[in-house]
Each structure stands twice: as C-alpha cells, then as structure tokens.
Specification:
Length: 353
C-alpha cells in the first residue's frame, strides 16, 4: 500500500486500514496481468547462499521487514552476479516521463529493495515491466528515492495508528478513474469544506446482477475470470465481475475452488430448494474494517441507537408492504378499501421513525 499512499493517501487508508475495495475495468485487467506472476515458481536461496554464478528467476516472493514494519510480494526476483533485482509487473505501457516511471511505481520497487536489503540480500537495482508494450524500465535506487520511500512508509503507519482518514485530493484528475470514488466521495467531502460545486465524476453503474442456476444436475465451476455453468446439453459462461450473487435452486453443484473465489470476492452464494425456498447462505468474512466492526459492537449496547435503527427497519418494512399492496391489490372495484389501507400504512410508516 506504500505506492497507493504516494498516489493518494486517502486511497491507501481506505484500502489498507478500512479494507474497502471496489472492482473496475482497470483492477480486473491488473488482476489478469498478475495471474501468471502470482503463481510461485522457483525457490529463493538464503542471502548467504547466493553466489556470483547463480542465474535465477523466482516469482511471487513474499518477504517482510520488522524494522520497516511492511511486507511485500515481489512479482519477479532476478538473481545474477551475487545480487538480486526486484521486478514489478504493470499493465499498460510505460509513461514517457522523467526517470521512466511515475513516482508511486518507483517507490513500490524501492520498498521491495529495502525489504530485501534488511533480509541480507545485495540489491543491484529495480525494474518495472509493462506488459502491453513488453518493455522493461530500470529503477535507480538513489538516495532521494530511498528517502521518499521511508517517509511514505512512516506517514502511512502513523495515519493508520491515528485511525483518521486523510482528506481527499482536491479537484484531482486521479479521482476520475478511481474505483473507490463512490466510497471516497472526494468532491462531495470537499464541498462541505469549501462549498465548491462538485465535479460530475463517473458514478459506478453497478453492472453486477444475481445469477440464478435452477437446472437439475447443473454444475458450476470457475474458469479464469468467468463462471461456467454446465448441464448435460449446454454450457453457459458468465463473467465474475458481472455477478453480485449466485443463487442455486435444487440439485445444483458448485466446485470448491469456485466457492473460494466467490467468498474472496464477497459474492454471496444462496442455497434454495427446487421451489425457491431459501435454505441458507455461503458468505465470506465480510468487511475487513476493524474500526467499523468495533463501532457496531459498541452500538449494540446503546439502547437509544438500537431503537433508532429498529424504527428505521420497521418503517422500511411498512413502506415495502405498502408498495406490494399497490402493485398486487385485487379487491373492491371502486378502490375505497385500497385507498384506506394505503393511507393507514402511510401513517404507520411516518410514526415508526
């Protein structure tokens, strides 16, 4: 998260401290790019066992530093001439900017190098690999970059300890394509501080919808970024990014790897009978925001807050019943009883809060 902190402190806090996440086209593409390098291959020898004759390439290396208080997963670690070089994979093409790459990416590689040095390895330098252009960009680990990286690590850890969100960026173009813009609300938050008119940022269109599988004997499995639903006569695919919930009705099976992936993405699996009666749910661990869970636990002992929440739930239930009554009324022809019932439900809903 150190590179996120350099890019946007509020983004780093939301993702690392509060555990917030929202998918976008960019994040999905980044996950696809890392699919190969995230699979560990090769074994990294201990620092003292590396010789100048070694020529090794080790993928998905996880190391940490107690001194720095950070952990990194290095996409590729090259060993040559007695030293190592961390290589970080990036989607897209290299930017034509000073020093060959943006500061957050260079800080990320530098953080990996600092961890390697704390574990006793000699680091020759770093590199970034841009997959779209298949181009390698060297990262020079000079004193300025090292100092900037150490400062970013310290700032991020202090912000987490303070348990206070950093302010959002002000009218930054970074917010336009940020997947967390709908959670961060940068312009809306700044509006209350400066009364400036918020920009029309692109809202999330929430393309995800529930997926129902009710063909007897159907089998659901995962294939990359898609779900495959197989029956005796047919096969249907559905992209994972477009699924908000998986509902399995009747004798339908799902593979264990699929359940693991759905839980990891916080996609609820609902089990129902052939007739649609709900039997139960398979869910992941839910929010990773410890502060939120602590606040919820404390609130459960506050009678006044519990009563306010309960009143809101009751009012919402009554309004929903009123909506269903309007849609499905099949009573008297003149509608007098319907009008009376709707009026009574409206009064009850207004009294509940």
């Amino acid at each position: 998260m150190v590179n996120e902190w350099v890019y946007c402190p509020r983004l780093a806090y939301l993702e690392w401290v509060e555990g917030a996440w929202a998918d976008s086209g960019d994040t999905a593409e980044g996950r696809r790019v890392h699919a190969r390098v995230d699979k560990a291959s090769g074994a990294l020898p201990a620092a003292d066992d590396i010789s100048e004759e070694d020529r090794l390439k080790t993928r998905a290396v996880t190391l940490g530093s107690e001194r720095l208080g950070i952990i990194a997963k290095i996409d590729l670690l090259e060993t040559e001439d007695g030293s190592v070089t961390p290589v970080d994979y990036k989607k897209g093409r290299r930017p034509h900017v000073e020093k060959g790459a943006y500061e957050p990416e260079r800080v990320q590689v530098c953080a990996q190098a600092l961890i390697l040095e704390d574990n006793g390895y000699a680091v020759a330098g770093g590199a970034l690999w841009y997959t779209a252009a298949r181009e390698r960009v060297p990262v020079v680990l000079d004193e300025d970059l090292r100092a900037r990286t150490l400062t970013a690590i310290s700032e991020l850890r202090l912000a987490a300890a303070a348990a206070r969100r950093p302010p959002p960026l002000d009218a930054s173009p970074k917010c336009v394509r940020c997947s967390l813009a709908g959670l961060c609300l940068p312009d809306e938050t700044n509006f209350f501080r400066k009364s400036a008119v918020p920009r029309p940022l692109n809202p999330s269109d929430e393309p995800a919808l529930p997926l129902y599988v009710q063909t007897p004997g159907a089998r659901v499995r995962k294939d990359g970024e898609t779900l495959v639903i197989e029956t005796e006569d047919d096969k249907v695919t559905a992209p994972l990014i477009g699924i908000s919930q998986l509902v399995l009705c009747g004798p339908v099976s799902v593979t264990t790897p699929t359940l693991h992936e759905l839980m990891r993405r916080d996609i609820v699996v609902t089990w129902a009978s052939t007739g649609g009666w709900v039997m139960g749910h398979t869910v992941g661990t839910g929010t990773k925001n410890v502060d939120l869970r602590t606040a919820q636990y404390r609130a459960s002992f506050d009678d006044r807050r519990c009563l306010n929440i309960a009143r809101g739930l009751v009012a919402a239930k009554i309004r929903n019943c009123r909506t269903m009554l309007r849609r499905n009324w099949k009573g008297d022809a003149d509608g007098a009883r319907k009008t009376d019932a709707l009026a009574r439900l409206k009064r009850l809903a207004e009294r509940a809060p």
